[in-house]
């Protein structure tokens, strides 16, 4: 079945390496659906792409056919949005580590490019703030198993 509109889904790198069995099963199912459904294009924020060097083979294969965002200079409004995301996730702009900044860039990229869903297993920084992120940026933060349920309804 072909859909006129399939929502954009961005994946955080950690969603490809789920430690929980439920999430491993969900990613296996998502893999099957992504491979057989032409409507789904795997889109990878440039900030996630660099984290995927040890991704499973199916992801490496799919990534080679994927659409990537590109790093670019931000205009003032985009810089303001990125700072807002950092504050929402971490409560500060001071003494942030590289992975924390990347988390904010992931969310920024997803909202900037009209993504509807961002799949992650980051409970500490992203999933714990999902309600605030959705309210502010109209971006649903989901786990792989939640994403699977959404995708099953659409294919």
Distance from first to last alpha carbon: 7 Å
H-E order: EHEHHEHHEHEH
- Structural class determined from secondary elements: mainly alpha
Low-confidence stretches: none
Please give the domain count. Answer: 1
How helix-rich are the residues, as a percent range?
Answer: 40-55%
Number of helical elements: 7
Number of strands: 5
Strand proportion: 5-15%
Spatial order of strands in the largest sheet: 1-4-5
Tell me the radius of gyration. 15 Å
Give the rounded overall mean pLDDT.
84
CATH hierarchy, class: Alpha Beta
Tell me about this structure:
The protein is mainly alpha-helical and 155 residues long. The protein has a single domain, classed as Rossmann fold (3-Layer(aba) Sandwich). The protein has 7 helices and 5 strands; from the N terminus they run βαβααβααβαβα. Strands 1-4-5 form a 3-stranded parallel beta sheet. Helix 6 links the parallel strand 4 and strand 5. The mean pLDDT is 84.
């Amino acid at each position: 079945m072909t859909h006129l509109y399939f929502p954009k889904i961005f994946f955080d790198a950690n969603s490809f390496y789920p430690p929980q069995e439920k999430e491993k099963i969900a990613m296996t199912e998502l893999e099957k659906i992504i491979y057989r459904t032409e409507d789904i294009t795997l889109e990878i924020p440039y900030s996630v792409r660099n984290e995927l060097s040890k991704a499973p083979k199916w992801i490496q294969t799919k990534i080679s056919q994927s659409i990537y965002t590109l790093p670019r200079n931000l205009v003032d409004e985009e810089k303001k949005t990125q700072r807002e995301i950092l504050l929402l996730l971490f409560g500060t702009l001071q003494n942030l580590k590289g992975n924390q900044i990347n988390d904010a860039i992931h969310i920024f990229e997803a909202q900037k490019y009209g993504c509807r869903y961002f799949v992650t297993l980051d409970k500490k920084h992203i999933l714990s703030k999902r309600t605030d992120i959705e309210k502010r940026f109209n971006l649903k933060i989901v786990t792989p198993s939640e994403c699977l349920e959404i995708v099953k309804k659409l294919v």
